[in-house]
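User: Fold both of these, please.

Assistant: Here is the first one.
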Amino acid sequence: MAACGRVRRMFGLSAALQLLLIAAAGAQKGGHSQGQGPGANFVSFVGQGGGAVSAVQQLPQSPQLQQPQQQQPPQPPQPAFPAGGPSARRGGAGAGGGWKLAEEESCREDVTRVCPKHTWSNNLAVLECLQDVREPENEISSDCNHLLWNYKLNLTTDPKFESVAREVCKSTISEIKECADETVGKGYLVSCLVDHRGNITEYQCHQYITKMTAIIFSDYRLICGFMDDCKNDINTLKCGSIRLGEKDAHSQGEVVSCLEKGLVKEAEERDPKIQVSELCKKAILRVAELSSDDFHLDRHLYFACRDDRERFCENTQAGEGRVYKCLFNHKFEESMSEKCREALTTRQKLIAQDYKVSYSLAKSCKSDLKKYRCNVENLPRSREARLSYLLMCLESAVHRGRQVSSECQGEMLDYRRMLMEDFSLSPEIILSCRGEIEHHCSGLHRKGRTLHCLMKVVRGEKGNLGMNCQQALQTLIQETDPGADYRIDRALNEACESVIQTACKHIRSGDPMILSCLMEHLYTEKMVEDCEHRLLELQYFISRDWKLDPVLYRKCQGDASRLCHTHGWNETSDLMMTPGAVFSCLYRHAYRTEEQGRRLSRECRAEVQRILHQRALDVKLDPALQDKCLIDLGKWCSEKTETGQELECLQDHLDDLAVECRDIVGNLTELESEDIQIEALLMRACEPIIQNFCHDVADNQIDSGDLMECLIQNKHQKDMNEKCAIGVTHFQLVQMKDFRFSYKFKMACKEDVLKLCPNIKKKVDVVICLSTTVRNDTLQEAKEHRVSLKCRKQLRVEELEMTEDIRLEPDLYEACKSDIKNYCSTVQYGNAQIIECLKENKKQLSTRCHQKVFKLQETEMMDPELDYTLMRVCKQMIKRFCPEADSKTMLQCLKQNKNSELMDPKCKQMITKRQITQNTDYRLNPVLRKACKADIPKFCHGILTKAKDDSELEGQVISCLKLRYADQRLSPDCEDQIRIIIQESALDYRLDPQLQLHCSEEISSLCAEEAAAQEQTGQVEECLKVNLLKIKTEMCKKEVLNMLKESKADIFVDPVLHTACALDIKHHCAAITPGRGRQMSCLMEALEDKRVRLQPECKKRLNDRIEMWSYAAKVAPADGFSDLAMQVMTSPSKNYILSVISGSICILFLIGLMCGRITKRVTRELKDR
């Protein structure tokens, strides 16, 4: 290098001979023209150059140029030239009779055999022909090789070589100040011209400099200073004996190739055994750089790829690195030879170490590199020279919205694709992932398959990957930036081509939104399996660095800097953050309310939402979730491998998760509650329902929980598909674990929860706490409710939603699990079907479950709107009959309209069920409970003392009140309610629990036909009355007698008699107020009055009732004086009975008087004695 005087110029005289070929050829044809101008010196110089072989001892030679012969391995002896040399033999070196290579004895045979005849007179044409021979059958002799080498060696050291350059490139030198200032006669000028040959516009000069380079690059010993800088490395790496023993000693491009491989190998080893010296590294890279425009100059690659060039790049013009690029593009073709592929890979690795080794990249990006300060001049081994640094620096400018020339961006795209295609071009991957590649990914070298295999391992699908390897992969993904253009990732591009053509054809090729489009179609019918895998493998890394999504970065870089303290696109400080930390920060701010402040811009928020919606498809796309929940995923969810199942599994086991994992899953679930569209799979499954029923809320830019609320409300529509229903129910179940998971509930009630229900977390407990507070405030008629109005409204929604599925009430579900299995195993969840099943099997339930069901029924009866089944079955009837009814009086309103002709049969049946339930216990009838709150403890105290909480009294209290009603001893309000109950149960025996309990056998045996009737109108009760004498069971007989007793109190409670006598009541008793037996007494009087003619059916029924009452009076004597008096007063023969009783009293009085006088007389007589 010292001989050339400049570190930056490796070749001394680097590129000057093959233009002489052109000029000299013209001179030869013109008879050695004596004309003026550059041509004359050209011809003269060629002649002298040819004669330089004979004058080799006389020409000045530096030690650096002589040493290579000493350093070379043993070679055939030098040809002996006579004193004076060949030129002397042939008449000197005159212009007219110059020395000819073709006439030299050692080369004559080779020239005749290999070179076209028209080139024999031109030494340089012969030289080019002979040095490009590589076919085994055409190899030139060793003597000829040495003659050629001596010819080139002396030619490149001749001072006249520089003088020709000065004459041919006169105008160019004057334009390039650096070259004009070079010292004359030192050999620096041509080196300078080689450095600036990209800027040479003068045709002859450009050809001169370009063509001459081939001579220098044919042998490393001819490169000025190269031997000095690399001689020790050549020996250490044993590069001098590469072709030992072979005929072609002239092809010393193999030595440079060997050094290049040594340099590359060193970069790929953590502790290299052999290290290339710094001087030689610079020299190697400089050689590669200066051979970057014409692939002929890389002699090893030229010979290795000559056939491949003809096969793949036949029409590609040489120069400006075009042939290199063409061969790079075909590197992984099946028909590419292995030796060429290896040579291309080595050159690509050199480009990765120094971007200047790529002529097209260095030229296209020169101004951009300078503009954005991406390079440092004259430091080829510096960090700034690495391809990765250049790409990162320029990509940063692009991502910041700066202008980078289209030519440079095109070159960047090519080299980013190159790095993604071949992992071996990245030394960090080789260093950090060697073991993983050998273990998991051997044999997958081509077209980016190895990188995707490593990505697959990182995702946990094939094993584990070391942290260093993961970091190396992450760095490579940032360098190549495939998120900006999917075509950079060849494996992804090929796998997803069909999907892109069908699903994303509306998006411009290369647009970053192609990846977003592919994510939107993940797990859809349009997606193919191979594309799905490649896409998720790439997205795994993009999700860990927010900057790798160019659209997100462009729209959110300001927000990220302001809120998350990020730095520039290629700043390494961001790498110190936890993977995914910046995006986590962004989405936390995306869902803040205006009151919380510091929200994202609208553009950024929309972008964050888009990515959240896409990444929710796979837990591995959430770095924090995968990192913190790795152990829990293995522990609880190892079998949940289907799409979306892993997150659902974590949510199901929320209480069992480790603290950090639980927090992350909780935060994500809380986010979902606000924006359920994050659940992309659920949204796809529910698309028909959303379009039909929820399109208004779905179109809102801000969800705020409205969409999920709509889906819940329409969960049981006919259009609802199973997947959607299951997804919605699962989300409801997850919401029960924490009230924060219900966004609207949380926002409406968070202050109330903090104030009234602190330290309560589970939603069901919070709902109970707040509901209890609301109920107590209502019962106590508090002036001001403690629970705010907006919370009370949302609380109502939550209460209604919870009634739909027993699993939404965890305490009830846990208490009844075994009962569900025993009695409701065939019943599906949802639509409150399990709850309804438990109610129907209430008597068979376990004690704990029975108590919970009773409590549930008590709540539902107090607030019928919470009775999901009733509300669902009677929805239309409520609209028809009770549009103005309060939720608390809904059932009461339905009962009043139960027998309307317009009443839906299914609703009527459901109302009857609820009446049956109410009549089992007064506590299940809030209206009765309120009306009889004084009467119940007064008349039924004995029953209450025996009662148990959470257990039905089987109608005992109501039966007790019925008897008091017959005795006309109840308060007016209570009497009204009992009358209603008696009237209803008189029409349907099922509404009388005591009658059902004690007369079940009699009903089955005596009244089976009546009990089987579809419509109950009192047939069973009438049957039992008629068959009273056949009833053997005392308790049943007593119940029937009680019915008879009740009917005497009011004709309305005897439907058969009331129907038969309806006209007579209208004609004869219309003025009589109903109740207290008044209308019954009126009918009895009419029966006794011979002037009144009753309807035959009424008369018959009345006579039957008199007989029954008479029998009842005999069978069931009065329990006490009050009962006896009541029986007399309500008896049809009360006048007769009263006259008899009065006469008896008078007789007894007279007897008493008489007896009293006799005793008084006897007493006197005794005193007188």
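And the second sequence with its predicted structure:
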Amino acid sequence: MADQRNGSGQPSNAARNVYAIDVEKFKIRLKEFYSNWKENKAGLWGSSDVIAIATPPPSEDLRYLKSSALNIWLLGYEFPETVMVFMKRQIHFLCSQKKASLLEVVKKPAREVVGVDVMMHVKAKTDNGTDLMEAIFRAIRSQPGADEQAAPVVGHIVREAPEGNLLETWSEKLKGAGFELADVTNGLSDLFAVKDADELINVKKAAFLTCSVMNNVVVPKLENAIDEEKNITHSAMMDEAEKAILDPTRAKAKLKADNVDICYPPIFQSGGEFDLRPSAASNDESLYYDSASVIIIAVGSRYNSYCSNVARTLMIDATPLQSKAYAVLLKAQEAAIGALKPGNKLSAAYLAALSVVEKEAPELVPNLSKSAGTGMGLEFRESGLNLNAKNDRMNLHNQTKNPKIQNFSLLLADTVIAGDQNPDVVTSKSSKAVKDVTYSFNEGEEEEQKPRARAEMNGGENLMSKTTLRSDNGEISKEELRRQHQAELARQKNEETARRLAGVGSANGDSRAASKTSADLVAYKNVNDIPPARDLMIQIDQKNEAVLLPIYGSMVPFHVSTVRTVSSQQDTNRTCYIRIIFNVPGTAFNPHDSNSLKHQGAIYLKEVSFRSKDPRHISEVVQQIKTLRRHVMARESERAERATLVSQEKLQLAGNRFKPIRLTDLWIRPVFGGRGRKLPGSLEAHVNGFRYSTSRAEERVDVMYANIKHAFFQPAEKEMITLLHFHLHNHIMVGNKKTKDVQFYIEVMDVVQTLGGGKRSAYDPDEIEEEQRERERKNKTNMGFQSFVNRVNDLWTQPQFSGLDLEFDQPLRELGFHGVPHKVTSFIVPTSSCLVELVETPFLVVTLGEIEIVNLERVGLGQKNFDMTIVFKDFKRDVLRIDSIPSTALDGIKEWLDTTDIKYYESRLNLNWRQILKTITDDPQSFIDDGGWEFLNLEASDSDSDNSEDSDQGYIPSDAEPDSETEEEDSDSESLVESEDDEEDDSEEDSEEEKGKTWEELEREASNADKEKANDSDSEQERNRRKAKAFGKSRAPPRPAPRMPKRPKFR
């Protein structure tokens, strides 16, 4: 029932059946209307006995009316030239025949929900409706419970002037009917304030469109105009933004154009003339972007008549005053948003913003606007909800000679949903960080003003980029700018850490390790289940996982889980011995668990030994016990891992909805278990997650979209694989392995080695053809992955995934550096939100948002390498050390950390971070009082030379790895994809390592001790004579070849 502007309009005959009132929604909202009216009648509704709402005819002007909002909220459409009268027992509609036919469906639900009868008064085209109005007035006077002497109180919207013949007649008749009139504007505002789930979805979609227009249309258009110094007017920019809103495809937003509209004409202002009222208009003046200029942008859009708004301020070569004012404004807005919580008064938002300005910049208090915003929904400004939302404005005056920059204003606006939990800023995708709204041009100009001779001495001119982020007045060096920004980050970080520690409090003890518990071990439920003894010999019951031992003529069963180690040995008389050591709760490496605590008075068997003349039988028993124990431990370990998993939603297959997006011939890491040949599989994107599967039915992995924390796409450039990597919120099982990282990859190059050993000519046709094939294969693979990523990104832009904030991130190789995060030198690469290393295992994925600070250690000692320590916001989490980073990468890492707003420190020594974090968590108040992280400040510590000895106590030298390069060179010929059978065998053997000393070990130690004692008593001459005699009797065994270090398996 709405046209383009105010949502009003009348359907044609052909479109009559298109409009249908949602009866269920009408029932819910009609009940809310009457409940609110009843509860707040004396206050918000002006003690009204009757509420009369008259909706004016449609208009081409963009306007917001309470009457239109009530139509849309209650009925789903606007009904222009319609009068609605709500009474306790009746609802009267005065409208045309077409509207009355549409409203027929509400009669039955209205009676069911609130017990009112709906009365239709159909007005003919030639009738002015006087008689119908008199009938409504008679119904008002005769309604049950009305006082015959006192006039009924009729509530209406005072500020809406009547338009059209029908409404003018109604207003005139209402005033002359002898009723007492009251204003119900505040009641309607309160009714519209709380949004249901459908309304919130409409607001979020509107906010998504607004951010898309700002990020994909407005900002790129402005940057291009500034960069190429184009002359473009404010009104031209307004037209471009409005077209993008009305056609969402221009803003890369997949929303139906029929459901969207502008919230107000986009506002562009610059050149010292600013009007911060929402009714401001973009003039025909040209965009002004000289030094110290400010550009204000405000964009608002509607989806299904629900509004959203965002405003940003761009600063060109900002002055110190402008930079300070913007920083204060940003903090004030964050404080106002933080105050939007249930139970707070409406004034809390403004008072929170005001307190920040009074604390940070008292001189700017007179320039702060008198309102922190208003409520928003069906109306752009809900009059009764002032001071309750998100608009912070500041108008400052700077004394300067240039009239274009004499006056400047700063404006920030966001759309915020104030719910039961923390406020949700739904326009947060449009960045307002300082680094994203400031631009610099002075650096390039000043370079040109320097003497040309200096440039010639350096061999050429220093070419500066046209537009760079985070600028100041151009007179300060890049290092000084970085130092100033780091000082500001240090202040913010200390305040943030203090707030977090004050909220969490100190933790007692170290909760890094958790005690293990085991289930009750039952081999046989009763005695009759024990198999009959054939002979009094050790037996292994594979089915019941038990070891039966002959003790005093009876077969006594022991569950194999109680066995700690088993070993055998043979003496000179060919007599074999088997020794079995059991787990005894309460001893070292065997703490009490829930099973042992139930039987605290129990007596445990520590070990048992048997003698036999049959060495073959003894060997078989030992092997069977070890094998059975290994299988049981593996099963219990997997069961324990699965028990800690977070339950995931079930994968919804694409089916007939759409053809799943598919990528074939992929390998997975970590690999599936088993000793069979590894098989490639395919990755498919379905409705709510990915599925990877091979030709084996049991080899299948589902990765839900909601469980993906970060998604990465890394094409093969200098690596030999192209990969997709998913870092998850919660662990999943891949085969029998529990993991938070799942990777799918393809090898784009084969690892080969020339057996001849000679160098091939650079003009060898075979060599050229081989390189060409590898290049084509790599490009084809990268293009296939890129196509898959683009299609999945398009899928993730759908509204149901908007809350997940999913998008494939691509590592920025130009910012990468070499380091040792685990044991092998790797190439570590930043992305927009993480620091990753995705080629070598174990993988490295560090979320930048989880980083507290970064400490660069062993810096300034003239060494070739330094270390990076990453401290996380969760102080119970171990720090991450990246060792052996080349010193040539230091400046690049500093610049990257500063650009991403991460505070970093430098130190000359490695610190004992576990002890430091324990000290902080044990006594957070002392940490805060001592200046927070400033104890890491190298410049401050240099001035305090008396404490230099104390600082050495935390020194821990980094591990040197001189053989890392040789190890890599020697393993170049190995295939990247190797079978894990050998590794699994090694791990199995390691798991069988005996923790208790066997008789053989004890005898060997005694023999060695006797030999050492004898050697100590011998003279040097006797020892030399024995050596010569031993050498003459037997040849020395061949010297074993040095075992090369294993290359980590590429899983």
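The chain has a mean pLDDT of 78.
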